[in-house]
User: What shape does this take?
Amino acid sequence: MGEDLGIKFRSLFVPLSIAVVGASATGITAGNRFIRTLKEAAYPGQVFPIHPSASEIEGFRVYPSIEETPSAVDYAYLTVPAEKVESILDVTPGKIGFAQIMASGSPDMLPGWEDRLRHLSRKTGVRLIGPNCMGTHSPLGGYTFIEGARLVPGKIGIACQSGGLGMDILLRGQNLGLSFSGLVTLGNSIDVEPSDLFEYYLSDPVTHTIGFYVEDIKDGRRFFELARRNCGRKPVVLLVGGLSALGQKAASSHTGAMGGSRQAWEALARQTGALLTTTLDAFLDALQLCSWLHPQTGDVQPTITLCGNGGGTSVLAADALEAAGFGLAMPNAEARQSYATIEIPPGASLENPIDLPASVLKEDDGRLIGKILDIDLRCVAPYATIIHLNLTVLLGYRHIEGFLPNLMQAITHQQDDRIANHKLLVLRSDRREEVDHWRRQIRQMATDRGIPTFDEIPQAVDALKKYRDYERFLTKRRLIG
Amino acid sequence: MKAACAMIDQAIAKGHAALDEHAAKTLFRGLGISVPAGVRLDPERSASGMIDGLRRPLVLKALSSEPIHKSDLGAVRLNLADARAVDAEREEVSRLIVAAGVPLVGFLVEEMAEAGTEIIIGGINDPMFGPMIMVGAGGIYTEILNDARFGLCPISRADAMEMIDGLKIAPILKGKRNRKPIDLEKLVDILMALGGQEGLFHLQADRISEFDVNPLIVRPEGVVAVDSRIVLKK
Assistant: This one.
């Protein structure tokens, strides 16, 4: 089963040839931009621009139709208007593996047009992606659809029913250090559906975490069945649009009046261990945690150590943690004794929240926090450690040689791998250019070591709460631990 | 399950939009869900001589082949002492039902259930995911309290237990404040009989559009379905 699916989707994720329909010989269209991303990425397969009259586009030899290309086309990228799509795809059966259709039909042509496309798909065997989407990103296949997307092979597989959000997931995700095994924008999903990619990603040995943006799933039962069979083995993160839609407007029962799309998705998430999110940021944050943290299962007390510079911030953070059902991990006698052995300048508080002003963080050229975190981990062993840095204040110490690398080394380095602990890093900026520049550098250092980063503490708390629910699911359903 | 199917077949064949309460309860009893002891009366039939086996006090309810909100129509009368009291109320309720333009198919006279924690169990068909079952805080304030959990059918026992556990009223069911705890496994049994792999709603969702059991009164001594509606698909 797994192997079959791998073969079926191989021409999409690792195409040996790509046909581009809609590139211009004279101007720069979406088709041209796509060919340029292929060149930029040094796509290793063959590129066939399709054009009725041109002989060369973007340096590639042009073919008048897909039928006339010298080999089978694994993947066709169509940026032509909707009315031209049918004639382009009406080829010898087996000629095209996958065709991704950017166009969206006008409302009056839509039903008939989509039906005819489905018919073409059955006739020629081409699998259709879209219409109304933006492209596919496959590091393994060496191609992407958007300028600036890095082809770093990763372990997150995405299916997205919106082109624009697909782009956001890719670009904002990579800024957070996320990398993908694949990202397919599915648009209206008239043929290849979210469930098809779900099944593929579940069987794909490279994919570890699966993410969806979905609005309308036509085969909801199949999606539910796949999620249920997976039972949390591969973490599944859902970003669902349209939760406010009412289930039954004219319900004649209490149950009907109370149920709707939101209740259905919440039920699916609870029953399958999926992480349900409703904002792009929350979705990306959940993907960070699922990709990098190792689930702590069993009877774990969800206690947190908060550590950073900023007293008020710590107080607010403690409130957010309490509201989310987490407790603060209190230092024990052993921890206190150990703290007494290290030299800490005045101004620090080692009770949890551990408050380390910038003037303390700068000690040992930025290394002091490492000693404190080590003691806390060894003696208190909290479920998670949230480290928050107010970068504006830290910037005052940028004259210290090696301050930043030392600080980051101290934060990211974990003394004892045998102690289960989630480490999350909050990087707070006032959004001035210099501070944001620092934040980017620090974020990169953290994500290189698999530490999730956030702009603000409540975001980290929300993500951790969702992840904790996932761990609880695994514990209850006895998958691990 | 066979008997349940036959009852649904019969109602659909008659063109009914819903199973009347008596039929719904007969069906639930067949699935192992307790309902109050009761007697069905034809619309014009006096209660005299029909209800001797029932423990007092009694409840009188109008039966309709339409899904009606009985208490809104004044079609439920509580605390009746004997057949004479039942008959007096019966005539009054008859008038109200006819005035509301709802088909009256008979009456149900039942033993009044003892008070307990009121739960609702229900089911709807989700346009994307199909049959979905619900458990929540029941009674007349169900929608105001909005304390409910849904599960996509078929649910497992673990799903059912988690749905109950997730309710705000779960601590009450488990016996907070010196109350005797109720047997949650019994509630799970009922959820499974309706929404599990072999559950009524999971198997019959192509014919049942939605249903409520509300209230389901849970007490340490047992669980009783006091009112219910089953709406059929058109």
